[in-house]
Amino acid sequence: GTNVRGLVHPQDVAEVNRCFEELLQKPDRCQASVRLRRKDGRFMWSESVARSVRDLETGAVQEIVAVVRDMSEHRRGELQEQVLHQMREEISRMQSPEDIQQFLEAVKKGLERLAIDFRGCGINAVDPSSEPPAVQFHSLVNSGEWTTRITDPDA
Description:
The chain is α+β, with helices and mostly antiparallel strands and 155 residues long. The chain contains three helices and six strands. The radius of gyration is 24 Å and the shape is elongated.
């Protein structure tokens, strides 16, 4: 078979090692959720159930057999829910227009966590206290910084 450790995302190697250690100690079964490298080089979230096959006389592990299923879409849905929750939390914390920077940084981090290309992303904030309302256009540029343009309601 294939040495699975070479396919595991570096941040998930400890989880795979834990599972292998469990299987060597005595449990017959171990479950782990880790990222594995696909043939195209990208990583996918997987759920693996591994089972040790032991020598009937000595009890020594002869091999480990694993069944792996792709959980990428499931994990992405969970991550989207977490990011949306964080956005709602940031909005509820806003007390004044000056708090927009904190919200913008949370949006940027959320987009990064979701691996969404953020170039050209924008958020508009409307101040209805003037007539016509003033609008702040916040755009996330290629460098990863937010730029702000404010319309002049008197123009």
